[in-house]
Amino acid sequence: MHRTSADHSSDPTPLRGAPAAGQKLSFHADLEDWAEGMDYCAVRVPPEITDALGTKGPVLVLARVNDSEPFQVSLFPVGGGQHCIRIKAKVRRETNTKTGDRIRIRITVLDRADVVLPDDLVSALRAEGVEEAFKSLPPGKQNFIVRRIDDAAKPETRERRIQEGVVAAHERREKLRDQP
Protein backbone atom coordinates (compact mmCIF):
# COMPACT_ATOMS: atom_id res chain seq x y z
CA MET A 1 0.00 0.00 0.00
CA HIS A 2 1.14 3.51 -0.79
CA ARG A 3 -0.16 6.55 1.06
CA THR A 4 -0.71 9.94 -0.55
CA SER A 5 -1.70 13.04 1.31
CA ALA A 6 -2.71 16.53 0.34
CA ASP A 7 -0.68 19.37 1.77
CA HIS A 8 -2.27 20.55 5.01
CA SER A 9 -1.61 23.80 6.83
CA SER A 10 -0.29 23.57 10.36
CA ASP A 11 -3.74 24.48 11.69
CA PRO A 12 -5.35 21.22 12.93
CA THR A 13 -8.82 22.79 12.99
CA PRO A 14 -11.00 21.18 10.30
CA LEU A 15 -12.44 23.37 7.60
CA ARG A 16 -15.78 24.89 8.47
CA GLY A 17 -18.44 22.36 7.59
CA ALA A 18 -15.91 19.54 7.40
CA PRO A 19 -16.14 16.74 9.97
CA ALA A 20 -13.03 16.08 12.04
CA ALA A 21 -10.97 13.11 10.85
CA GLY A 22 -10.84 10.49 13.57
CA GLN A 23 -14.25 11.45 14.97
CA LYS A 24 -16.00 8.28 16.18
CA LEU A 25 -19.78 7.92 16.35
CA SER A 26 -22.22 5.04 16.66
CA PHE A 27 -25.94 4.52 16.32
CA HIS A 28 -28.64 1.91 15.83
CA ALA A 29 -30.90 1.86 12.79
CA ASP A 30 -33.18 -0.42 10.79
CA LEU A 31 -31.78 -1.90 7.59
CA GLU A 32 -33.97 -0.75 4.67
CA ASP A 33 -34.38 -2.13 1.15
CA TRP A 34 -33.81 0.84 -1.16
CA ALA A 35 -34.32 -0.71 -4.56
CA GLU A 36 -36.65 -3.66 -4.77
CA GLY A 37 -35.07 -6.56 -6.61
CA MET A 38 -31.62 -4.92 -6.72
CA ASP A 39 -30.17 -6.06 -3.37
CA TYR A 40 -29.48 -2.43 -2.43
CA CYS A 41 -29.85 -1.77 1.29
CA ALA A 42 -29.10 1.31 3.34
CA VAL A 43 -29.84 2.88 6.70
CA ARG A 44 -30.80 6.42 7.57
CA VAL A 45 -28.26 8.23 9.72
CA PRO A 46 -30.00 9.81 12.72
CA PRO A 47 -30.18 13.65 12.64
CA GLU A 48 -28.06 13.94 15.80
CA ILE A 49 -25.21 12.10 14.02
CA THR A 50 -25.46 14.40 10.98
CA ASP A 51 -25.46 17.37 13.39
CA ALA A 52 -22.35 16.01 15.15
CA LEU A 53 -20.60 15.68 11.77
CA GLY A 54 -21.28 19.34 11.03
CA THR A 55 -21.90 18.90 7.30
CA LYS A 56 -24.72 18.03 4.94
CA GLY A 57 -22.26 16.86 2.26
CA PRO A 58 -20.76 13.39 1.72
CA VAL A 59 -18.54 12.07 4.52
CA LEU A 60 -15.90 9.37 4.01
CA VAL A 61 -15.92 6.92 6.93
CA LEU A 62 -14.61 3.58 8.09
CA ALA A 63 -17.72 1.70 9.19
CA ARG A 64 -18.62 -1.47 11.05
CA VAL A 65 -22.03 -3.13 11.16
CA ASN A 66 -22.53 -5.09 14.37
CA ASP A 67 -19.23 -7.02 14.55
CA SER A 68 -18.29 -6.86 10.87
CA GLU A 69 -14.86 -6.21 9.50
CA PRO A 70 -14.38 -2.48 8.94
CA PHE A 71 -15.18 -1.18 5.46
CA GLN A 72 -14.74 2.20 3.80
CA VAL A 73 -17.89 3.93 2.60
CA SER A 74 -19.32 7.42 2.24
CA LEU A 75 -22.30 8.71 4.13
CA PHE A 76 -24.32 10.19 1.31
CA PRO A 77 -26.68 13.17 1.58
CA VAL A 78 -30.33 12.54 0.71
CA GLY A 79 -31.72 16.02 1.22
CA GLY A 80 -33.32 17.74 4.15
CA GLY A 81 -30.00 17.67 6.01
CA GLN A 82 -30.02 13.90 6.27
CA HIS A 83 -27.43 11.23 5.39
CA CYS A 84 -27.73 7.55 4.59
CA ILE A 85 -25.16 4.79 4.48
CA ARG A 86 -25.23 1.88 2.03
CA ILE A 87 -24.73 -1.57 3.50
CA LYS A 88 -23.39 -3.93 0.84
CA ALA A 89 -24.52 -7.52 0.44
CA LYS A 90 -21.07 -8.79 1.50
CA VAL A 91 -21.41 -7.04 4.88
CA ARG A 92 -24.99 -8.23 5.31
CA ARG A 93 -23.88 -11.82 4.65
CA GLU A 94 -20.96 -11.46 7.08
CA THR A 95 -23.26 -10.18 9.83
CA ASN A 96 -26.22 -12.41 8.92
CA THR A 97 -28.53 -9.39 8.65
CA LYS A 98 -31.46 -8.76 6.36
CA THR A 99 -33.92 -6.01 5.52
CA GLY A 100 -35.85 -4.89 8.59
CA ASP A 101 -33.16 -5.94 11.10
CA ARG A 102 -32.02 -3.43 13.71
CA ILE A 103 -28.25 -3.01 13.37
CA ARG A 104 -25.52 -1.15 15.22
CA ILE A 105 -23.27 1.04 13.10
CA ARG A 106 -19.95 2.42 14.28
CA ILE A 107 -18.19 4.98 12.11
CA THR A 108 -14.84 6.73 12.18
CA VAL A 109 -14.51 9.81 9.98
CA LEU A 110 -11.60 9.53 7.56
CA ASP A 111 -9.47 12.30 6.12
CA ARG A 112 -10.37 12.47 2.41
CA ALA A 113 -6.89 13.83 1.71
CA ASP A 114 -5.25 10.69 3.13
CA VAL A 115 -5.41 8.18 0.30
CA VAL A 116 -3.90 4.68 0.46
CA LEU A 117 -3.15 3.33 -3.02
CA PRO A 118 -3.11 -0.44 -3.55
CA ASP A 119 0.21 -1.84 -4.77
CA ASP A 120 -1.28 -3.18 -8.01
CA LEU A 121 -2.68 0.26 -8.88
CA VAL A 122 0.68 1.91 -8.16
CA SER A 123 2.45 -0.65 -10.37
CA ALA A 124 0.02 0.02 -13.24
CA LEU A 125 0.36 3.80 -12.85
CA ARG A 126 4.17 3.57 -12.80
CA ALA A 127 4.20 1.31 -15.85
CA GLU A 128 2.29 4.01 -17.75
CA GLY A 129 4.29 6.89 -16.26
CA VAL A 130 1.21 8.54 -14.74
CA GLU A 131 1.62 7.99 -10.99
CA GLU A 132 2.12 11.69 -10.26
CA ALA A 133 -0.81 12.63 -12.47
CA PHE A 134 -3.01 10.24 -10.46
CA LYS A 135 -1.78 11.75 -7.20
CA SER A 136 -2.71 15.21 -8.51
CA LEU A 137 -6.37 14.17 -8.82
CA PRO A 138 -8.58 15.55 -6.04
CA PRO A 139 -8.43 13.27 -2.98
CA GLY A 140 -12.15 12.47 -3.23
CA LYS A 141 -11.67 11.22 -6.81
CA GLN A 142 -8.64 9.16 -5.78
CA ASN A 143 -10.60 7.62 -2.90
CA PHE A 144 -13.55 6.85 -5.19
CA ILE A 145 -11.28 5.02 -7.66
CA VAL A 146 -9.46 3.12 -4.89
CA ARG A 147 -12.74 2.11 -3.24
CA ARG A 148 -14.07 0.76 -6.55
CA ILE A 149 -10.87 -1.25 -7.00
CA ASP A 150 -10.99 -2.60 -3.45
CA ASP A 151 -14.69 -3.48 -3.78
CA ALA A 152 -14.17 -5.65 -6.87
CA ALA A 153 -15.24 -9.22 -6.18
CA LYS A 154 -13.51 -10.80 -9.19
CA PRO A 155 -9.87 -10.44 -10.29
CA GLU A 156 -10.93 -9.41 -13.81
CA THR A 157 -13.18 -6.68 -12.37
CA ARG A 158 -10.32 -5.45 -10.20
CA GLU A 159 -8.00 -5.30 -13.22
CA ARG A 160 -10.59 -3.43 -15.28
CA ARG A 161 -11.05 -0.89 -12.48
CA ILE A 162 -7.27 -0.47 -12.14
CA GLN A 163 -7.19 0.33 -15.85
CA GLU A 164 -9.99 2.88 -15.30
CA GLY A 165 -7.73 4.51 -12.69
CA VAL A 166 -4.86 4.57 -15.20
CA VAL A 167 -7.15 6.19 -17.78
CA ALA A 168 -8.21 8.82 -15.21
CA ALA A 169 -4.51 9.56 -14.58
CA HIS A 170 -3.81 9.91 -18.32
CA GLU A 171 -6.77 12.28 -18.65
CA ARG A 172 -5.51 14.31 -15.68
CA ARG A 173 -2.01 14.52 -17.19
CA GLU A 174 -3.45 15.78 -20.48
CA LYS A 175 -5.59 18.34 -18.66
CA LEU A 176 -2.54 19.59 -16.73
CA ARG A 177 -0.54 19.84 -19.98
CA ASP A 178 -3.28 21.95 -21.58
CA GLN A 179 -3.20 24.52 -18.79
CA PRO A 180 -1.18 27.69 -19.46
Number of domains: 2
The coarse silhouette is: globular
Largest sheet: 7 strands, antiparallel
Please give the number of β-strands. 9
- CA radius of gyration is 18 Å
Unreliable stretches: 4-16
- Here the CATH topology of the largest domain equals Elongation Factor Tu (Ef-tu), domain 3
Instruction: Give me the secondary-structure category.
Output: alpha+beta
Number of helices: 6
Q: Hey, roughly how much beta strand do the residues contain? A: 25-35%
The N- to C-terminal Cα distance equals 34 Å
Elements, N to C (H/E): EEEEHEEEHEEHHHH
- What is the helix content? 25-40%
Q: What is the mean predicted local confidence, pLDDT?
A: 86
Mind telling me the CATH class of the largest domain? Mainly Beta
Compact description:
The protein contains six helices and nine strands. With 180 residues, it is α+β, with helices and mostly antiparallel strands.
Could you describe the 3D structure shown?
This protein is an alpha+beta fold. The protein has 2 domains: 24-109, Elongation Factor Tu (Ef-tu), domain 3; 113-178. It is built from 6 helices and 9 strands. It has helices at residues 47-53, 89-95, 119-128, 131-135, 139-151, 155-178; strands at 2-5, 24-30, 32-35, 40-44, 59-65, 71-79, 82-87, 102-109, 114-117. The strands form 2 sheets. Strands 2-8-5-6-7-4-3 form a 7-stranded antiparallel sheet. The chain has a two-stranded antiparallel ribbon with strand order 1-9. Strand 6 and strand 7 form a beta hairpin. The longest helix has 24 residues, at 155-178. The radius of gyration is 18 Å and the shape is globular. The two termini are 34 Å apart. 24% of the residues are buried. Residues 4-16 have low confidence and may be disordered.
